[in-house]
Automatic annotation (TrEMBL):
<feature type="modified residue" description="4-aspartylphosphate">
    <location>
        <position position="55"/>
    </location>
</feature>
<protein>
    <submittedName>
        <fullName>GAF domain-containing protein</fullName>
    </submittedName>
</protein>
<dbReference type="Pfam" id="PF08448">
    <property type="entry name" value="PAS_4"/>
</dbReference>
<feature type="domain" description="PAS">
    <location>
        <begin position="132"/>
        <end position="186"/>
    </location>
</feature>
<keyword id="KW-0808">Transferase</keyword>
<dbReference type="InterPro" id="IPR050595">
    <property type="entry name" value="Bact_response_regulator"/>
</dbReference>
<dbReference type="InterPro" id="IPR013656">
    <property type="entry name" value="PAS_4"/>
</dbReference>
<keyword id="KW-0418">Kinase</keyword>
<dbReference type="InterPro" id="IPR000014">
    <property type="entry name" value="PAS"/>
</dbReference>
<dbReference type="Pfam" id="PF00072">
    <property type="entry name" value="Response_reg"/>
</dbReference>
<dbReference type="InterPro" id="IPR029016">
    <property type="entry name" value="GAF-like_dom_sf"/>
</dbReference>
<dbReference type="InterPro" id="IPR035965">
    <property type="entry name" value="PAS-like_dom_sf"/>
</dbReference>
<dbReference type="Pfam" id="PF13185">
    <property type="entry name" value="GAF_2"/>
</dbReference>
<dbReference type="InterPro" id="IPR011006">
    <property type="entry name" value="CheY-like_superfamily"/>
</dbReference>
<dbReference type="GO" id="GO:0016301">
    <property type="term" value="F:kinase activity"/>
</dbReference>
<feature type="domain" description="Response regulatory">
    <location>
        <begin position="5"/>
        <end position="120"/>
    </location>
</feature>
<dbReference type="InterPro" id="IPR000700">
    <property type="entry name" value="PAS-assoc_C"/>
</dbReference>
Length: 451
């Protein structure tokens, strides 16, 4: 087993020699004996001792405390101070450098041995503690969750800061504050659950807030924080951002709802109903699924540019005061504006700022105010069959709304095309029936004359 290496910093040569001999008799290896702070720094780098015995009072520009400060910072070598002075002012300066022990001159060999061994043990424990703290820091920083602790008064005593930065926050927003002070009224849910935990329960709950201007969802797990006597001294917990999971569940729920609704609508459209009823059914589902305030659905008369027999939400009748707006048909070449653009170009249009859309021509006096607009043409075999137009949803229209209305438009196009085909077949059958009746009448008259 290798010997512990010790460096001695002492400006009185006789004392330095004596300490060196004592150290060797105790089984230590003396790597260097120097008399100044500057030389101590130089030799500490050259010889890398395990520990340094540093006299506080040294001759020259740098005393032992200044030298110890530099050595500790640069090389992290444990220091034990040698001093014949124990006044409060000197000790206060020495404490700042974080020494691992003191020994007052003159001292016995057993004192020297004890101080060195205790210092080395403390240093070893300090290294282990720092490694443990570093590992803890790495783990905490690597977590996606926000770790925190509260005291018995619910004041935050610790919170992992790296995760807070993604929300534009830092620990100063939390440390020393209660949930009510941090979150205001939203903090009541935390306060209620904290009280349960302080009584010994463990709790998991969900809540939402708006750290970054957008709504965020969190799951919080909290448990009692206990000391070695198993006494509750506070709360330890985790904030877990479940916004993505919440959005995924919401999207799945929305998709299931849409699919079920489209299946129901498809079934209704298979029934023998009028074009007006087809338009009304599609309108009802479009309004319900997008949360829109206004809507109209209409079909294009074959061979013309007339939008006919459209269904309109009751709110339009109540709030729109444009003259003749509810006539039974429009020639969309004369319409213009956003919904006219959709008909002319056979392309969908979605905007949450219609007033600044270059395709908009504004609204006439008395028209309902439009602050969001979404419209999709109903196309069948490249031909325009009709249109679905929505306005003023509760929330801004998104891509999934456009996709939904496009699916509704496809169903609408199929239903209208099927109905028009049925009407043509019926008209053709009626025409044929009349021809046959007329033919039979003529035959009957001819036969009568022959008789």
């Amino acid at each position: 087993m290798s010997k512990t290496k010790v460096m001695v910093v002492e400006d009185e040569s006789i004392v330095a020699i004596d300490i060196g001999q004592r150290l060797e008799s105790l089984g230590y290896e003396v790597t260097a004996t120097v008399s100044s702070g500057e030389k101590a720094i130089e030799k500490a780098q050259e010889t890398s001792p395990d520990i340094i015995l540093m006299d506080i009072v040294l001759k020259g520009k740098m005393d032992g405390i200044e030298a110890a400060s530099v050595i500790t910072e640069r090389f992290n070598i444990p220091i034990v101070y040698l001093t014949a002075y124990s006044d409060e002012k000197t000790l206060k300066r020495a404490k700042i450098t974080g020494p691992f022990g003191y020994i007052i001159k003159p001292f016995e060999d057993r004192e020297l041995h004890s101080v060195i061994e205790v210092a080395l043990y403390k240093y070893e424990m300090d290294i282990k503690l720092k490694k443990s703290e570093e590992l803890y820091r790495i783990i905490v920083n690597s977590m996606n969750d926000i770790l925190f602790t509260l005291d018995m008064d619910e004041k935050c005593t610790m919170i992992s800061e790296p995760q807070l930065k993604r929300y534009g926050l830092n620990k100063d927003n939390f440390i020393g504050k209660t949930p009510l002070e941090i979150f205001g009224e939203e903090g009541k849910i935390h306060h209620e659950h904290n009280l349960k935990v302080l009584q010994g329960e463990s709790v998991v709950y969900e809540w939402s807030t708006q750290f970054t201007g957008e709504k965020l969802y969190f799951q919080t797990s909290i448990s009692p924080l206990k000391n070695e006597k198993d006494e509750i001294i506070g709360i330890v917990g985790l904030f877990r951002d479940v916004s993505d999971l919440k959005e995924a569940k919401k999207a799945l729920s929305w998709e299931l709802n849409v699919n079920n609704s489209l299946a129901e609508l498809s079934q209704k459209l298979l029934n023998p109903i009028s074009l007006e009823k087809i338009s009304k059914n599609v309108l009802n589902y479009a309004v319900s699924l997008t949360g829109s305030q206004f809507c109209f659905v209409g079909y294009v008369e074959p061979g013309t540019k007339n939008l006919k027999s459209f269904s309109v939400t009751p709110q339009v009748y109540e709030k729109c005061h444009v003259s003749d707006i509810f006539s039974t048909e429009f020639n969309f070449n004369e319409v213009g504006g956003l919904w006219g653009w959709v008909l002319d170009n056979k392309e969908p249009l979605m905007t949450n700022d219609p007033n600044n859309d270059p395709r908009s021509i504004g609204t006439p006096e008395g028209h309902v105010k439009i602050n969001r607009f979404l419209s999709v043409p109903a196309i069948m075999d490249g031909e325009l069959v009709g249109q679905i137009a929505l306005a003023n949803a509760e929330e801004p229209y998104q891509d999934h709304d456009l996709e939904l209305v496009s699916r509704l438009a496809n169903l609408y196009a199929l239903a209208v095309h099927r109905k028009l085909s049925e009407n043509q077949i019926k008209a053709s059958e009626e025409k044929n029936r009349r021809i046959v009746e007329k033919f039979l009448k003529i035959v009957s008259e001819v036969l009568t004359e022959i008789k």
